[in-house]
Specification:
- Chain A: It is an enzyme of class 7 (translocase).
- Chain A: GO terms for molecular function: NADH dehydrogenase (quinone) (non-electrogenic) activity; NADH dehydrogenase (ubiquinone) activity; quinone binding.
- Chain A: Belongs to the complex I subunit 2 family.
- The complex is a heterodimer of chains A (about 525) and B (about 100).
- Chain A is an all-alpha fold.
- In chain A, about 70% of the residues lie in helices and about 0% in strands.
- Chain A has one domain (about 20-520).
- Chain A is built from 20 helices and 5 strands.
- In chain A, the strands form 2 sheets. In chain A, strands 4-3-5 form a 3-stranded antiparallel β-sheet, with no helix packed on it.
- In chain A, about 60% of the residues are buried.
- Chain B is an all-alpha fold.
- Chain B has a single domain, classed as Orthogonal Bundle (Helix Hairpins).
- Chain B is elongated, with a radius of gyration of 17 Å.
- Chain B starts with a helix and ends in a 13-residue tail after the last helix.
- Classes of the chains: A mainly alpha (about 525), B mainly alpha (about 100).
- The interface between A and B is large, with 49 and 49 residues.
């Protein structure tokens, strides 16, 4: 048996490009510091300290990002494990913006009578004396902020990794905090714990598939590096180890599509969105989707593009099923959060059309598939954050009231809430003059250019049907008889600022999308 | 001398046993252990792959996976224990409030 002979074991210290990596490093550093603060500060100061730390670190990180982007720093970082290119910049910027908006909703306390949306003591049994004591003592889990930052940092690394092992570790770094966060709701804790259990078991299951896919691709190519896998695929035509490649490709796709929420790997979405505390749902709904789509694009466009004739038809079928299941599922829902969850599944389907299109080389000035998807996610993200922010406002005596019936006649109680919610619904539906329309236009164009005309036709038909389900909620809000016992909570700026930013951005991206579109077009090419 | 590809087949078998366990067993703890079995099957594939391809990356990766699996145990057990304290049951069939 041959053994692998090592040269004298020399450990070279890795070199890090501190300035280029600063956006990620700052987020992680703030998360670690946040854990420390929680351990040493007296309770009274923790919330304020954590909030300061979160917003300061994210702002600083954004500053470094803009600086690096202007200086056009590009290429491989951290010994080749992270790729800094156009899509990375654009998606990092979107993640930081949406993360900040979601963390603002995390900070809302006025709505709940001075308490945050998170359990006073997540470890106590619901309905027990300990729980009552913890609530009476006004305890709070300020750990939600460091957990959120860890998740955000993990997502940033996930979509930028040029190496499958870094990608796997980042996948877990952003998933594990999310499992915990979804189990920490203050109200309806049984639902919340159940959501955490389901999310955890299914998430761990899917990361098992992801890892097995990585292992197969490693055996196939002898490397974890996306570029090396690309070369191995290119040099592989008609070789005998195709089995390894296809098993690897399939399993990797399962792991990634699970996070995107594509049918048939979507079953966690409605349960988790409904059970998790609404601020966390807002964070997951856009940031997880963005990171997962980013990583999906990177793996399939950079490493496996040589196999595109095999995965494109497969993804096209999944896109159709996803749109249909998402829309039909949404039609029968009676809960606003579940409705939004199914709507997010349908949107994953619309996104997949552009993924299938896979236009990568385009004449100057036109957008690639990646730039269409990035614009779509930005447009979808502002509406999502705004919509979930509004969901936290509609309440009854027990807390948030999410049933559609209780939203009836909301326009008479608060024209602002109903009006803004309608704006977000219209954007989801893709009505002109909202961001959703331009986003849909962009992804359908990308799919069309990629030669998938039939898929565009199906997607347009699906989005016409989808209009009905968003109009249903608008009609309920404006035409229904006002529901008894429901009121609009008196929220502070921590909820209203993200909602208003979401609304303004939805209109802005719908009416004058040029700047952001140009930015996305400019950032549309992956480096190998 | 054994053909190293047999280890890949063994890894695949272990992985399938784990995946079936997650889908068929009703106890959250057992399902979770089956996930760990899946991750360890991947480890075996990594180490076998390291031998087949003559690179060391696979062996290093096995350590990364072990650390990640340990972190997953911490989070997973916390969630399962908290749900057990609430319901006195870890059956995934009892967790059925979120259905519509």
């Amino acid at each position: 048996m041959s053994s692998i002979l090592l040269p004298a074991l020399e450990m070279a210290a890795p070199t890090l490009e501190w300035r280029a990596l600063a956006p990620v490093l700052l987020v992680f550093a703030a998360a670690c510091l946040g854990i420390l603060l929680d351990a040493v500060l007296p309770r009274a100061y923790r919330f304020l300290a954590q909030m300061t730390l979160v917003f300061a670190s994210v702002a600083l990180s954004f500053g470094f990002l803009v600086m690096n982007w202007r200086a056009m720093r590009q290429g491989r970082l951290a010994m080749g494990s992270i790729m800094l290119d156009g899509p990375t910049y654009f998606m990092w910027a979107s993640l930081l913006v949406f993360g900040t908006l979601a963390f603002m909703i995390f900070s809302e306390r006025q709505l709940n009578g001075g308490a945050s949306a998170f359990a006073a003591s997540a470890a106590s049994v619901p309905g027990s004396l300990e729980e009552a004591d913890a609530s009476a003592a006004r305890r709070e889990h300020t750990e939600v902020f460091p957990l959120g930052l860890f998740a955000l940092g993990g997502m940033m690394v996930f979509l930028a990794s040029a190496d499958l092992i870094v990608m796997f570790v980042a996948l877990e770094v952003f998933s594990l905090p999310l499992y915990l966060l979804s189990g920490m709701a203050r109200r309806r804790r049984l639902l919340s714990q159940e959501a955490a259990l389901k999310y955890f078991l299914l998430g761990a299951f899917s990361s098992g598939f992801f890892l097995f896919g990585v292992a197969m691709l490693y055996v196939f190519s002898g490397s974890f590096d996306l570029h090396a896998i690309h070369e191995a695929v290119a040099g592989n035509a008609f070789s005998s180890s195709n089995g390894l490649l296809y098993v690897g490709l399939g399993f990797l796709a399962i792991g990634l599509l699970f996070k995107v929420g594509v049918v048939p790997f979507h079953s966690w979405t409605p349960d988790v969105y409904m059970g998790a505390p609404t601020p966390v749902t807002a964070f997951m709904a856009i940031c997880t989707k963005l990171a997962a789509v980013g990583a999906l694009l990177r793996v399939f466009y950079v490493a496996l593009d040589g196999e595109r004739w095999n995965w494109q038809p497969l993804f096209a079928v999944l896109a159709v099923i996803t749109m249909v299941v998402g829309i039909i599922g949404a039609l029968t829902q009676t809960d606003v959060k579940r409705l939004l969850a199914y709507s997010s599944i349908a949107h994953a389907g619309f996104l997949m059309t552009a993924v299938v299109g896979a236009t990568q080389v385009v004449p100057a000035g036109q957008g690639t598939s990646a730039s269409a998807i990035m614009f779509y996610l930005a447009a979808y993200g502002f509406a999502t954050i705004g919509a979930f922010g509004l969901v936290t406002l509609v309440r009854n005596a027990a807390g948030e009231d999410n049933t559609i019936a209780s939203w009836a006649g909301l326009a008479r109680k608060s024209p602002w809430v109903a009006g803004l919610m309608s704006l977000f619904m219209l954007s989801f539906a893709g009505i002109p003059l909202t961001a959703g329309f331009i986003g849909k236009w962009a992804v359908f164009t990308a799919a069309w250019r990629g030669g998938y005309g039939w898929l565009v036709v199906v997607a347009v038909l699906a989005s016409l049907v989808a209009v009905y389900l968003y109009l249903r909620l608008i009609v309920v809000m404006f035409a229904g008889e006002p529901a008894k016992g429901t009121y609009v909570g008196n929220a502070s700026g921590w909820t209203w600022i993200p909602v208003v930013i979401g609304a303004v951005a939805t209109l802005w991206l719908g009416i004058i999308p040029d700047q952001v579109m140009q930015l996305a077009t400019f950032a549309g090419g992956f480096l190998r | 001398m054994m053909n190293p590809e047999n280890y890949l087949i063994l890894a695949a078998i272990l992985f399938v046993i784990g995946a079936l366990g997650v889908m068929l067993r009703r106890n959250a703890l057992i399902a979770f252990l089956c996930v760990e079995l899946m991750l360890n099957a991947c480890n075996l594939a990594f180490v076998a792959g390291s031998h087949i391809t003559g690179t060391l990356d696979g062996q290093t990766t096995a350590f990364f996976v072990m650390v990640v699996a340990a972190a997953e145990v911490v989070v997973g057990l916390a969630i399962i224990v908290s749900i057990y304290k609430t319901r006195r049951s870890t059956s995934v069939d009892d967790a059925n409030l979120l259905k519509l």
